[in-house]
Amino acid sequence: MIDDMIREKIVGASSIGITSHIRPDGDAIGASLGLGMALLNIGKKVQVVLKDGISSTFRHLPGADLVKRAFEPGIDLMIVDDCSDLIRTGGVLGDRIPDINIDHHITNELFAEVNLVEPDSVATSAILAKHMPFWGLSFTPEIAKTLLTGILSDSIGFRTSNTTSESLRLAAGLMDVGADISELYNKALLTHSYEATKFWGFALARMQRENGLVWTALTLDDRKASGYFGNDDADLTNLLSSIESYEVAVLFIEQSITRTRVSWRSAGEFDISNLAHEMGGGGHPNAAGAELEGTLAEVQEKVLRMTQDYLKQVKSYAINSDGDRK
Ligand code: AMP
Ligand code: MN
Ligand code: MN
After folding, report:
1. How much is the pTM?
2. Do 239 and 172 sit in the same domain of this protein?
3. Which ligand has its closest atom nearest to the C-alpha of 154?
4. Res. 316 pLDDT band, cuts 50 70 90
5. Which of 126, 128, 173, 253 would staple 261 via disulfide (CB 3.0–4.6 Å)?
6. Are residues 242 and 180 part of one domain?
């Protein structure tokens, strides 16, 4: 069984490396720190590497100081978490194939020797909360805080449609160990800096909509003008996903004059993970992303066209299959 395989690999290793995806979100950070601290507690040497470090939103988490930007040699066991493909690690692995892959992305490419991938899980941190006891790892209040932060952050505070009673039971278990849900919720989801809020303002002012699609962009100039220097979207996608009666929300984030990031959020039955995967990215049915070559204007034109076509296709399929049933 997969839990036995993972336990044996952990028992047999003395030096363990952990990494996740670039521009790490609360789940990538929470899962990496929680697993890292649990392995330290059973006497393993541990290196936690995140290519982009930890954004200020999550720097309060226990174990944040463990994080480095690159691995030192001598690792026996390499674990990748919350990461659907190896490119998303940002090159920190070189050409090393990881031993263990722990993830919940439906687009996961099963790149490791042992792949614990549960697409129905609300967060990688929830997978850890469920499986760690089977690997001989236990929870301390510090570990519980990081894992609960991961669950809260990927489920946007238990709002996403993949939130289940199991997600809540796992979260409750972490609260029993000593994680304060209201404090963690506030820090992970409700608190935003003045600069981040100003950054949103620029994008919100140019928001547009058409046929169930809502979109806007964050430009390099907005970043400069607002003084927000994190390299992420400052959580604006979560706000877009709260807009009433949209089907798909798209945020374009200018990275440089030749690269643009795209974040999709969809409501209900619109599965945008395939669309993102087709464009070289990945994600979940209702939340996906990709990074594309091209100026902001070029990427925006192409992606909006493809997303509109996709929406039309899904809608006409729904009408036709309704028709068939009658
Ligand atoms: P984001 O829009 O960046 O918050 O990402 C939404 C979801 O899609 C997250 O689960 C990401 O891990 C995933 N995702 C975003 N960008 C990519 C990408 N370039 N490749 C694969 N997965 C991605
Ligand atoms: Mn993530
Ligand atoms: Mn995740």
Report:
1. 0.92
2. no
3. 3
4. confident
5. 253
6. no
Please identify every residue whose CB atom is under 5 Å from ligand 2, which is an ion.
Answer: 25, 27-28, 82
Residue nearest atom 21 in ligand 1 by C-alpha distance: 282
- Give yes or no: residues 171 and 217 share one domain: no
Looking at 163, 190, 217, the residue that finishes a domain is: 190
Strands 77-81 and 15-19: what pairing?
parallel
Could you tell me the distance, in angstroms and rounded to a whole number, from the CA of residue 326 to the centre of ligand 2?
42
Do 291 and 308 belong together in one domain?
yes
Closest by CA position to 265, among listed 244, 250, 278? 250
Domain with 263 in it: 194-325
pLDDT for residue 146: 98
Nearest CA to ligand 1 atom 2: 263
Cα–Cα distance between 125 and 149 in angstroms, integer? 8
Which residue's CA is the closest to the ligand 1 atom numbered 12? 283
Report helix angle 165-177 to 141-154, nearest 10: 150
Please give the Cα distance from 121 to 162 (Å, whole number).
Answer: 7
Residues framing ligand 1 (Cβ under 6 A): 21, 84, 88, 105, 237, 263, 281-284, 287-291
Asked if 185 and 209 sit in the same domain, the reply is: no
Mutate to test the pocket of ligand 1, among 84, 86, 108, 127 (most ligand atoms within 8 A of CB): 84
What is the pLDDT averaged over residues 254-261? 96
| DSSP H or E segment with residue 75 | none
Q: The domain spanning residue 215 has which CATH number?
A: 3.10.310.30
